[in-house]
Amino acid sequence: MNNIGEYVKRERKKAGLTQEEFALRSGLGLRFVRELEQGKETVRLDKVNQALGMFGMRAVPGEIDRSNLNG
Q1: For a Cys staple, 52 with which of 13, 28, 40, 57, CB 3.0–4.6 Å?
Q2: Euclidean distance between CA atoms 7 and 1, whole angstroms
């Protein structure tokens, strides 16, 4: 989830939006935006997709490529 949060934060800043402005424009709560950008793991996929939709993107379920995991 951290990669998604980092992506949203980077794109939001590129768009010149504060977290508050992004929350307002995307229809999401400010707390959700903050938690998403901080990498909180318990966020809802529908809301994640609402945030990603602001940049023409969407998260979809899929298998983890375990070859890239450490451990």
Answers
A1: 57
A2: 10
If we measure between CA atoms, which residue out of 71, 59, 66 comes closest to residue 1? 59
pLDDT tens sequence for the chain (71 residues): 479 999 999 999 999 999 999 999 999 999 999 999 999 886 688 999 999 999 999 998 877 666 765 55
pTM for the whole structure:
0.76
CATH of 2-59, one of 3.40.50.2020, 1.10.260.40, 2.40.170.20, 3.40.50.1980: 1.10.260.40
